[in-house]
Design goal:
By secondary structure, this protein is mainly α. It has one domain. The protein has helices at 2-35, 43-82, 89-127, 130-136, 141-180, 184-191, 197-223, 228-263.
């Protein structure tokens, strides 16, 4: 009887904590949309955060995007050769990289590099009471720390996604050119021949949504860190895990919506 009561109490407590955390996260998101439209806008800090995010993720995105383009081309060639359809290889690469792999690879890299960095940075400021000091100094810490970083992620990650797409296509072109001596113009013409405006628009929307997710999750975890230095590491780890999980969920949802719009 005691064990059953204890289990019920633990389940009830777990559910209460879950719904409380969901409520706090929802209020955090709503507060961002309220604060982003109210001056001051801290443009200099937004630009600074854009450079921080870009420089932090650019080397890894360059390497990963290039490797993805080369490897995916190498893996796709044998099945197409079996059907005598190697001429479709640039189109296949264009569809895969532009519609899915470019935005998704960029988002996952930024979730690891940028999301963890934001979570650790704000978490450190939280546990060392620097955020409380900002409030005493009449500075709105949410406006200066959260709004600027989330806005910078929304701006920068679509740019990095476009860069990843370009690098991935360059890697694919190098591989195809080495095998078949295809010209640069012919490759890019075929790569984009099967893409339409909806595909490009969907890719941009994905990048914007992924950027918002990475920024808001990283700042939320860091802004609510506790338990000293242990909490800083926990905030950084949770920021990465939660951001990646939400990115995959958003990827599936956006693909379903875009397919629905395409079938209309």
């Amino acid at each position: 009887m005691i064990n059953t009561t204890t289990k019920k109490h633990l389940i009830s407590k777990t559910l209460d904590e879950f719904f409380l955390s969901v409520n706090n996260a929802f209020r955090f998101v709503i507060q961002y949309f309220k604060q982003v439209l109210i001056p001051p806008f801290h443009f200099s800090e937004i630009i600074n955060q854009c450079f921080e995010i870009g420089l932090r993720a650019l080397p890894l995105i360059t390497l990963t995007g290039f490797i993805v383009g080369v490897v995916f081309t190498k893996q796709s060639r044998p099945p197409l050769e079996d059907f005598g359809a190697t001429s479709w290889l640039p189109s296949l690469i264009g569809i895969a990289v532009v519609k899915a792999m470019g935005p998704l690879v960029t988002a996952l890299i930024c979730a690891g590099k940028v999301g963890s960095g934001i979570g650790a940075e704000l978490g450190s400021m939280k546990v060392t009471e620097q955020i409380d000091a900002m409030e005493v100094s009449a500075i709105n810490p949410f406006k200066y720390l959260v709004v600027t970083r989330v806005t910078a992620a929304i701006i920068t990650i679509p740019i990095l996604s476009f860069y990843c797409i370009v690098v991935g296509l360059i890697g694919s072109f190098i591989n195809i050119h080495a095998e078949e001596a295809t010209s640069f113009i012919a490759f890019y013409k075929n790569a984009f021949s099967t893409l339409n405006f909806l595909d490009l628009f969907t890719s941009v929307i994905k990048s914007v949504v992924f950027g918002f997710t990475i920024g808001i999750v990283g700042t939320y975890k860091g802004f609510n860190a506790s338990q000293g230095t242990r909490g800083v590491g926990k905030a950084a780890n949770e920021a990465v895990v939660m951001a990646m999980f939400l990115i995959f969920m958003e990827e599936m949802l956006i693909v379903q919506v875009s397919n629905w719009m395409r079938s209309m």
